[in-house]
Design brief:
The chain is 61% helix and 11% strand. Helix 10 links the parallel strand 5 and strand 6. The protein is α/β, with parallel strands linked by helices and 369 residues long. It has 13 helices and 8 strands. The two termini are 27 Å apart. Helix 2 runs antiparallel to helix 4, helix 2 crosses helix 5 and helix 5 crosses helix 6. The strands form 2 sheets. Strands 1-2-3-4 form a 4-stranded antiparallel β-sheet. It has a 4-stranded parallel β-sheet with strand order 7-6-5-8, with helices on one face. The longest helix is centred in the middle third of the chain and has 58 residues.
């Protein structure tokens, strides 16, 4: 989402890329098991996964900048259509995601075969397969929860990817030990065990070039949204989460602060520019209602719109905002605009999608902005 964009089209491309990589990898993994021990297939796949995560991480900054190259086409009168832009986005997703998904796919049939043998009994492989499938499903569920609710917000995307790289290498090391125990022929044992550990050592060596950090200025320049680099300035603060991706605040040379989500503009503190629009989103609807009982603002932004509504005498104000990071950074850097409206009496903030919020409660509002 940070590199390729967070639209519904971008997520569709990511999912398609990931599933295609899994499918291709599974087909290759099945063929590899006809010539190699399943343990060795897992070692190759997990080492390959670790290496491709490192290579993909090295591409983050470059891929973000890649989108900006297409701004030059517009300058000479060549218009890139919506389909053309999404095709470019699909290529970026494939470069960043498919290699890792491919090696995960290779692991799957070998791991499931091993787990079926370990968990089943002779002549009753169905029991082992059922247990292995159940454990795999639980692993998928727990992986999503751990990554989304702990790894990403706690460590950030860079360190989370490093943890996953080390996890893949640990899996390969465990399988290398298993290969040694499975071999009985002395000569072949030495050759196969040595090969496994050499491959593992090479993969471990790749972690030495893992990027020390992302270039947040490049990731926040909006090229993946506008296909042209925006001169927002330098990132002075940021936060990461599963629901918001990369939320950042930039400061330009003239001191203008801008709030961004994955490079997409959310608001700034320009008194004669964006702030006029932010006020208008509150004031124009008020021309059409005399009631001042309850109001709803969908999308917090810098907090200017809910502040204006609150200060115009509404008894209660609800705010529906998808990302906690948005509110946190806006209240930290734009308090002179929003007057810390989220902490005012009668104001409630709900961290959810606006449409879902309206569908899951029956409250009626005099004004919705």
């Amino acid at each position: 989402a940070v590199v390729a964009g967070n639209s519904v089209y971008a997520f569709g491309l990511m999912l398609a890329t990931f599933l295609l990589g899994l499918g291709l990898g599974s087909a290759v993994g099945e063929k590899m098991m006809t010539a190699l021990l399943r343990e060795r297939v897992v070692i190759i796949a997990q080492c390959g996964l670790a290496i491709t995560i490192v290579i993909s991480s090295l591409q983050w900054d470059a891929l973000a900048s890649y989108f900006s190259n297409f701004g030059g086409y517009e300058a000479v009168g060549v218009h890139i259509t919506f389909s053309g832009r999404e095709f470019i986005r699909a290529l970026v997703c494939a470069i960043a995601m498919m290699p890792a998904a491919f090696f995960i796919g290779i692991s799957y049939p070998a791991c499931m075969g091993l787990a079926t043998d370990w968990l089943g009994r002779a002549g009753n492989e169905v029991t082992g397969l059922g247990k292995a499938s159940g454990i795999n499903t639980l692993g998928n569920i727990s992986g999503v929860l751990v990554a989304g609710f702990w790894l990403l917000p706690t460590l950030g995307s860079r360190d989370a990817l490093l943890v996953l790289t080390l996890t893949a290498l640990s899996s390969a090391a465990l399988m290398a030990v298993a290969v040694g125990k499975a071999m009985t022929d002395g000569t072949r044992w030495w050759r196969r065990v040595a090969t496994s550990w050499v491959l593992l050592a090479v993969a471990v060596g790749f972690t030495g070039v893992f990027p020390a950090h992302w270039d947040l200025d490049k990731l926040s320049q909006g090229s993946n949204v506008y296909f042209y680099p925006q001169d927002w300035g330098n990132v002075i603060d940021h936060a990461e989460s599963a629901e918001g991706g990369l939320t950042s605040v930039t400061r330009s040379k003239d001191g203008l602060l801008t709030l961004l989500t994955n490079g997409k503009f959310q608001g700034n503190n320009s008194e004669h520019g964006e702030m006029v629009a932010q006020k208008s989103f509150a004031l124009i609807p008020m021309l059409h209602t005399a009631q001042r009982n309850s109001a709803l603002v969908i999308g917090y932004g810098t907090g200017m719109t809910p502040r204006v509504i609150y200060e115009n005498g509404f008894q209660s104000l609800d705010i529906a905002e998808l990302s906690q990071d948005m509110v946190k950074l806006a209240d930290r850097h734009f308090e002179n605009i929003n007057h810390a409206v989220t902490s005012k009496p009668g104001v409630s903030t709900y961290f959810t999608d606006g449409r879902n919020f309206l569908l899951t409660q029956s409250k009626r509002y005099d004004l919705i902005s």
